[in-house]
Structures
1.
Amino acid sequence: MTSRPSRAPDALAQEFVRFSVEVGALRFGEFRTKAGRLSPYFFNAGGFDDGAKLGRLASFYARRLIDSGLAFDMLFGPAYKGIVLAASVAIELARLGRNVPYAYNRKEAKDHGEGGSLVGAPLDESLGARLRAEHLAPLAPIDDPRGTAAYRREAAQILVARCLNMLGSPA
């Protein structure tokens, strides 16, 4: 059995963990996930419960996203916690000189006002033309880091469905 080489955590990751523990968002112990697995830690984004904490959290996300070199042109925040995270990260990215739109989904479609199940920046045909299977692989909705793979797939499906619906609708 081969082992993977360990990678030393970088300063930003260490600072993020310290901050998360300090505000009580990251706790260690024995926790059961929604999927029924045991976890040695619990991360509750609800612990970032004021403007200063949320602003600092957004700074971590934005800096990591920029440093990653990942090509992106929009943020998506799955309901519910992801909505606030996507919005705050979009604000921080703009503050850092990278202004990008964001969108989020509703748990239930709205039949009045702007209607639908998605809110925020519109997706247009140019996005649909650029969408390929390899784009879905790195999709990482901004949400609790312990989100399940199924949850991330659902977020990807929401975005793809919106894009395909727009492509199939007459202008």
2.
Amino acid sequence: MKFLKLFFSLLFIVTLFSCSKTNDKEIDKSEDPIVGTWKLVHVIYSATVDNDQGRITYTGGASNPRGNIIFQNDHKVLGDAAITVNCGIELSGGQSYTISHPNQKIISGEGTWSIDNRKLIIEIAGENPVTYDYAIHSGNELDMERVYPEIVNGQTATIDLILLFEKQ
């Protein structure tokens, strides 16, 4: 009987010390691939105007991508990223459209991020949420695309903005 008590006591002690703690590295592997610091490296900008002369599309006109976006694991986002837009569209008949934003902010400040149905939603305090289609390539390239209307010289232009980021 003493032998069984001793055997079970030792078995209990061995079992108690053989349990492992949760490994922090295992937790990190489960974080969303968008979490991290992303540097804005390239921008593709196109503007399309429909009017009585037809549809005119201008691609280009955006330059000087600069800044970072930081997506945190707790769904907070912060950053300061901007581009320069200078897009002119000349139509036959002398009509022209100009879109000029010398410091168009992509993100400025702090807020939250979420993903819903393959859409990335960024919400900065005091601003309307902005929704992007997004894709992550090779774990270190992030593409974010946004299509939105903008009034230009009294006409509605459809803007297609593609932002390319590299993970830092």
